[in-house]
């Protein structure tokens, strides 16, 4: 009997020792619940709440290419555009076991104007909104003009901004013009920009509506990114270009597209760009003609400032007509919505 009791005692001791070295059975999350509260102000804001037994964190696939994590299960997110989104939530347990659940969220987003330049005050462009690039040297594109801040080249009158390119001898250049920019005065990240403009005539003219990243002075070009909303060649009337420049797609190798319109130089048209974390879209008069996917690897996820200019010649504008005297790029307004 003593021997039997000794055997059982040793077995119990060994069994107890084995328990200390055996990991606990993994426990998967259970009873996952996900709710979404959509703001009623059409702002796109949504409050998500996820709960589950045995969960230590939650991964949210927000249905638009955006992924976020929450330890508490509570997450606030603002959708930049209207849509019906399939949101998938993964509850993660302490040892990697998971449980997922998908819900549908319908969001309506109404953008409001956050900045505008209506060009209603005659004289020099409003210095609170615009500065100038000054000088010559080709500007990286073998351009022929000298940019000034004179009223001869940029003036507001009768409710529009006129950027005037002239054939004249000025500081060693044969042409003058102007380049206005909102750098250090206004920039924005994501949203919609609309510019109402009438384009200049004349072979060799190169008007542009475009944007550069705020980090231009530190990162340089093309690392800062460039969004060309509208470019036009005086030698190819009515063909509107939109492009993106960034590392690997710079110089003569941008991501670009064109569309043909009527009366670009005799009537005002609306040139616009819708920009979100997912895409950059270009329109003329509300007609979409160019869509480019945006990703976190591209430099288009930071504030950008606005540039309005008229260049002469260069790698894009081409040869300038020998009889060119002057041409006016006329802008009615610039409006930004978010």
The count of strands amounts to 25
Going by helix content, strand content and strand pairing, the class is: mainly beta
What is the CATH first-level class name of the largest domain?
Mainly Beta
Q: Let me know the average pLDDT.
A: 93
Q: What fraction of the residues are assigned to beta strands by DSSP? A: over 45%
Give the helix level as a range of percent: under 10%
CATH architecture heading of the largest domain: Sandwich
In one word, what is the shape?
elongated
Q: In DSSP terms, counting alpha (H) and pi (I) runs of 4 or more, how many helices?
A: 3
What name does CATH use for the topology of the largest domain? Jelly Rolls
How many strands, which pairing sense, and closed or not: the largest β-sheet? 10 strands, mixed
- Domain unit count: 2
The low-confidence parts are: 4-16
Order of helices and strands: HEEEEEEEEEEEEEEEEEHEEEEEEEHE
- Radius of gyration over all CA atoms, rounded: 30 Å
Euclidean distance between termini CA atoms: 87 Å
Describe the structure.
With 338 residues, this protein is mostly beta strands. It folds into two domains: 30-107, Immunoglobulins (Immunoglobulin-like, Sandwich); 113-337, Jelly Rolls, CATH 2.60.120. It is 8% helix and 49% strand. It has three helices and 25 strands. Strands 8, 10, 11, 12, 13, 16, 21, 22, 23 and 25 form a ten-stranded mixed sheet that branches. Strands 9, 14, 15, 17, 18, 19, 20 and 24 form an eight-stranded antiparallel sheet that branches. A hairpin with a 2-residue loop joins strand 11 and strand 12. The radius of gyration is 30 Å and the shape is elongated. The relative contact order is 0.15. The model is unreliable at 4-16 (pLDDT under 50).
């Amino acid at each position: 009997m003593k021997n039997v009791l000794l055997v059982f005692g040793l077995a119990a001791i060994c069994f107890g020792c084995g328990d200390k070295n055996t990991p606990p059975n993994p426990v998967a999350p259970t009873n996952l619940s996900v709710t979404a509260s959509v703001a009623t102000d059409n702002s796109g804001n949504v409050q998500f709440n996820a709960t589950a037994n045995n969960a230590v964190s939650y991964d949210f696939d927000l249905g638009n290419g955006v992924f976020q994590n929450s330890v508490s299960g509570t997450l606030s997110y603002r959708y930049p555009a209207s849509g019906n989104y399939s949101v998938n939530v993964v509850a993660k347990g302490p040892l990697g076991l998971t449980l997922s659940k998908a819900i549908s969220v319908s969001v309506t987003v109404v953008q409001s104007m956050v900045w505008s330049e209506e060009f209603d005050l005659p004289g020099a462009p409003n210095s609170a909104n615009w500065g100038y690039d000054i000088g010559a040297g080709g500007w990286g594109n073998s351009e022929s003009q000298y940019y000034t801040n004179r009223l001869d080249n940029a003036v507001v009158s009768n409710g529009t901004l006129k950027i005037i390119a002239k054939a004249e001898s000025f500081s060693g250049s044969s042409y003058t013009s102007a380049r206005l920019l909102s750098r250090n005065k206004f920039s924005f990240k994501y949203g919609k920009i609309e510019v109402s403009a009438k384009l200049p005539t004349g072979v060799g003219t190169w008007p542009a509506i475009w944007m550069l990243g705020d980090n231009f002075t530190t990162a340089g070009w093309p690392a800062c990114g460039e969004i060309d909303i509208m470019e036009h060649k005086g030698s190819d009337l009515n063909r509107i270009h939109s492009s993106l420049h960034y590392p690997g797609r710079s110089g003569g190798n941008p991501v670009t597209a064109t569309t043909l319109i009527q009366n670009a130089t005799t009537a005002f048209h609306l040139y616009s760009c819708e920009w979100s974390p997912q895409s950059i879209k270009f329109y003329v008069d509300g007609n979409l003609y160019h869509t480019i996917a945006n990703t976190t690897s591209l430099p288009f996820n930071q504030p950008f400032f606005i540039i309005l200019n008229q260049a002469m010649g260069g790698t894009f504008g081409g040869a300038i007509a020998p009889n060119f005297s002057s041409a006016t790029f006329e802008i009615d307004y610039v409006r930004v919505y978010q």
